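Hi everyone, sorry if this is the wrong subforum. Our group has a chain we'd like a structural model of before ordering constructs, and none of us has done structure prediction before. Sequence below.
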Amino acid sequence: MDTITLNNGVVMPALGYGVFQTPADETATAVAEALRVGYRHIDTAAAYFNEAGVGQAIGESGIGRDDLFIETKVWVSDYGYDETLHAFEKATAKLGIDQLDLLILHQPAPSRWQKVVDAYRALERLYADGKVRAIGVSNFMPSHLTDLLAATEIVPAVNQIEIHPYFQQKELLALNTAHGTVNQAWSPIGGITFYPGWGDGKRSTLDDPTIGEIATAHGRTPAQVMLRWHVQEGRQVIPKSVTPSRIAENFDVFDFELTAAELATVDALDTGVRGGPDPEAPRDEWFDFAIPEA
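Answer:
Right subforum, don't worry. Here is the predicted structure as tokens:
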């Protein structure tokens, strides 16, 4: 397993296991399988409503807490200084741990920007108090990052964003890197291109013939090629699956290497078309659903 060092010196695995859209009653089983395979970074979120399942799996795993990297996200309805401090308490109670390795804001929510700033200041407080080892953001675009940096003290350690061969956000990747912020790819194998609802009419990256040719050349799967592409270009990735064979497949990407020409070929697949929700769009009704207490 390769690792990535964050801007405060904290080390995280280069590849983690995500539980977006994993049903609450399946989460503990799926995470347990991921931990058995060898994953040590688990990414969840308050808005996934499955933090308790993650907590059950890590509690029953027998793996030492120091060997795990646990990341979760604060939802927009819990933004605000005091609200975000309480969101930390809710998350850690569900996860069954006292300290988070990484806590991030889930959405930029530009229509309620002061709440965003207050929420991030709460993350800074949690970091100063040693309750979280690193803090960051998710889905923040260049303007959001610029405004946040002007209003707060700590540069985000991570920005978790939609990145896959069909949507690469190269300007945002470069900006994050310039600030020392790790690019963390959600939907790293293009899952958002075919999730029901968001993916209607979109092509799946898994069926892309160019990626398929590279996979065949290495005796690998398209998913493994895409994950390897991310890792070699310095991004942290959090693929998700509840299927044991795919959980194992996604983890097995550290014993082969793509050539410079192959990397450039995947880079050239960028369409510039977002697959998931637009972080700039107003979505107040969606932002307002409540996160339950522990």
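For your construct planning: Residues 3-203+236-256 form a domain with the TIM Barrel fold (CATH 3.20.20.100). The chain has a mean pLDDT of 95.
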